[in-house]
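Worked example 3 (structure in, sequence out).
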């Protein structure tokens, strides 16, 4: 609507101007090269307007003709780029889906159209990797190093290729160059640190870890923990060569991570060897309060090895009360009590932890207590040894499903640092002596259950004898003549006499009498079955 009013106003303005020129005629004279051109003012204005219009049209045509080759070339370039990007996207999809033929065709087409475009080089390299053409992939990634835009991409590709070929030196070199180019590159920092740990280059790993923490690629808590582990690993390496350096490194590791058992164990052992018992005691107690471990308890016992067994027991009583894990504290105290021949004390300490699925160590210690107090061939000793054979395994150092008797800083499978954890073996099958392949219905609850189930340990023989006697009485009752007349036939079930569980003395017979009695019972059973 606005355009209409504007156009209408322009027409009115032109009409007014034309009328004004018609009311005020004039003359326009032009003298040029001996010629005289004379016309009215209105005609002169119209001729001037037409001349300007022709000049403007000529300039437009000239500009169009001047820019035509460039526009035509730009149109062809745009068309080729469209084809190239279409082939590039199709090739990327083919690489992701594993279509080798399509990816190779698209890579060749893209490289021809887009030439040295970064994505075309990437598609060519990935296609070569898909075809397992390692030389071509390495050459293309090497070409990317010449351009600042693709240098990081080339370094990453060369690193991946070296990693898959198990060429650790080249992989470490590429990761180091990537960090020099961009210090905050996460993949390069992580890869370089892992490679240095795998090679057990602890000094380089410590330097890389500090650089990663400086570049904010790792948190402070993780940095302190990993530094403590690396210092412990370095100290273990220096233990035989340089004892003083190993002591210094292990003590620094203990300061950074007081709950790290290997660091505390190594520092305490080295300090004890140097006669610095007080420092060793402080380190041992601090770690024991945060992470109770059998190695710490053994080291504390070694610290007081020159004392008498009764004095060691007194020390261990105070020490075990500070344990972060009550079970480990009880085991340590029980060992000291056994050494002091305080059987009642050792039994009292261990029994609360033996009620619910005790581990193998607890069962063996209780067997040792029974053996030490009551002598060999004791029923309870055999009972605890039998339970130890089926008990849960003791914790050990485990990383990625692999168990080790000693702690190690990294996993041999994945190369992950701090992978070993103190825990029971995974996937453990727990079997108890009471397990049966055919489950039976649970008996009626005892109206007066025994509050301490461990009192009945070793009484299985008496129970089996009683059950056999009851079965025989039940059998006699079933085959009596009166019962045959009054009651219908029923299925009989009884347990044969076990060789390790003889019958009571009143029912013991000679071999011939036992065979004769069994044959008579079988005859009566057959007769009873035919009558029914």
């Amino acid at each position: 609507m606005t355009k209409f009013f504007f156009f209408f106003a322009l027409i009115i303005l032109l009409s007014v101007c034309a009328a004004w020129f018609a009311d005020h005629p004039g003359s326009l004279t032009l003298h040029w090269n001996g010629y005289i051109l004379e016309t009215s003012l209105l005609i002169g204005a119209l001729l001037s307007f037409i001349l300007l219009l022709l000049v403007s049209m000529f300039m437009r045509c000239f500009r169009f003709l001047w820019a035509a080759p460039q526009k035509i070339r730009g149109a062809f370039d745009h068309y080729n780029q469209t084809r190239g990007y279409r082939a590039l996207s199709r090739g990327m999809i083919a690489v992701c889906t594993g279509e080798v033929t399509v990816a190779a065709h698209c890579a060749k087409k893209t490289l021809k159209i887009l030439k040295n475009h970064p994505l075309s080089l990437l598609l060519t390299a990935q296609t070569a990797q898909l075809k397992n053409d390692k030389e071509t992939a390495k050459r293309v990634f090497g070409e990317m190093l010449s351009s600042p835009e693709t240098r990081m991409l080339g370094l990453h590709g060369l690193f991946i290729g070296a990693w898959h070929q198990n060429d650790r030196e080249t992989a470490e070199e590429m990761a180091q160059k990537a960090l020099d180019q961009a210090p905050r590159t996460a993949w390069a920092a992580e890869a370089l640190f892992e490679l240095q740990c795998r090679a057990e280059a602890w000094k380089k790993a410590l330097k890389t870890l500090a650089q990663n923490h400086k570049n904010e690629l790792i948190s402070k808590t993780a940095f302190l923990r990993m530094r403590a582990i690396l210092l412990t690993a370095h100290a273990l390496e220096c233990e035989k060569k340089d004892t003083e350096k190993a002591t210094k490194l292990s003590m620094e590791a203990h300061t950074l991570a007081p709950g790290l058992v290997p660091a505390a164990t190594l520092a305490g052992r080295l300090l004890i060897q140097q006669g610095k018992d007080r420092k060793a005691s402080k380190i041992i107690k601090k770690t024991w309060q945060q992470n109770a471990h059998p190695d710490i308890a053994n080291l504390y016992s070694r610290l007081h090895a020159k004392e008498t067994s009764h004095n060691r027991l007194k020390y261990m009583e105070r020490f075990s009360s500070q344990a972060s894990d009550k079970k480990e504290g009880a085991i340590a105290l029980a060992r000291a009590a056994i050494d002091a021949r305080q059987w009642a004390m050792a039994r009292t300490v261990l029994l609360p932890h033996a009620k619910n699925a005790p581990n193998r160590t607890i069962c063996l210690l209780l067997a040792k207590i029974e053996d030490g107090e009551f002598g060999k061939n004791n029923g309870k000793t055999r009972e605890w040894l039998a339970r130890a054979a089926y008990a849960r395994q003791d914790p050990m150092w485990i990383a990625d499903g692999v168990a080790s008797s000693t702690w190690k800083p990294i996993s041999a499978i994945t190369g992950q640092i701090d992978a070993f954890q103190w825990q029971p073996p995974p996937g453990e099958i727990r079997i108890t002596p009471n397990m049966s392949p055919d489950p039976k219905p649970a008996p009626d609850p005892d109206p007066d259950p025994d509050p301490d189930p461990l009192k009945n340990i070793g009484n299985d023989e008496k129970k089996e004898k009683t059950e056999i006697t009851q079965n025989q009485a039940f059998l006699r009752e079933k085959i009596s003549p009166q019962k045959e007349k009054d009651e219908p036939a029923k299925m009989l079930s009884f347990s044969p006499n076990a060789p390790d569980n003889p019958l009571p003395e009143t029912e013991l017979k000679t071999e011939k009498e036992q065979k004769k009695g069994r044959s008579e019972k079988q005859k009566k059973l057959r007769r009873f079955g035919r009558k029914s």
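Notes: The longest helix spans residues 41-97. The longest strand covers residues 27-32.
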